[in-house]
Amino acid sequence: MLLASVVLTDISAIIVAKRSLIQATESAAQSAAHALDLETYYQGKHSALSFLVTDASPVIPIDCAAANTRAAETLSDIASSAPPTGSLTRSSTTAKGRLIRPELSDLRISQFQCNGTEVLITTTAKARLPIALSLFSFESVSLTASAGTTSVKKRIYSPFGIL
After folding, report:
1. Beta-carbon neighbour count of residue 94 at 10 Å?
2. What is the CA angle 69-73-74, rounded to 5?
């Protein structure tokens, strides 16, 4: 019965850590997708009759270099808000109001793909098990999460630029 409780506790911790990693990955992908490529976005938009022409592509172009930087900064902010892995803080927020996820460590981007309209990020992290028994030879597990996104313009009819 004790062994079953330990195993269930560790499985629950892994599930929470995996969800935390997914949320961090989604946050980094969303941040990256908002890195607007201004030159491509405004290309050909300044003619006198541009309001009569419908926009062929509702997708917002992404500056891939800026997107990579934004994703790394977002993930760094999330990783730096967690306490050191040696401390077991039960508080749910830091002084800055960020969530603490002590079950994650070594949070990093393992793959970043950007084609100018879409971003795909794969992250990895280690999840520390709350109860490590000598019966099991590991104290943590490696987790991976992926998230992809794009930004799309909202279609509105506004011939005079008034919303």
Report:
1. 14
2. 120
Residue ranges of the alpha helices (H) in the chain? 2-33, 38-41, 64-80
Residue range 64-77, pLDDT digits in tens: 999 999 999 999 88
Q: Which residue has the tokens 């999460």?
A: 145
CA angle, residues 97, 19, 75, in degrees to nearest 5: 55
pTM: 0.74
Give the C-alpha separation, 50 to 154, whole Å. Answer: 17
Question: Residue 36 is encoded by which pair of tokens?
Answer: 């607007």
Predicted pLDDT of residue 88: 46
- Taking the CA atoms of residue 60, residue 65, residue 71 and residue 72 in that order, the dihedral angle to the nearest 10 degrees is -170
Q: How many CA atoms lie within 13 A of 146 on its CB side?
A: 7
Please report, for residues 24, 72, 91, the alpha-carbon distance to residue 78 in angstroms, rounded to integers and kept in the order given: 7, 10, 16
- Specify the amino acid at residue 41: Y
The pair of three-digit structure tokens given for residue 4, joined into one six-digit string: 């079953």
pLDDT band at 149 (very low <50, low <70, confident <90, very high): very high
Type of residue at 57:
S
Q: Which residues contact 41 (CB under 8 A, 6 or more apart)?
A: 60, 61
Q: Confidence class of residue 94 from pLDDT cuts 50, 70 and 90?
A: very low
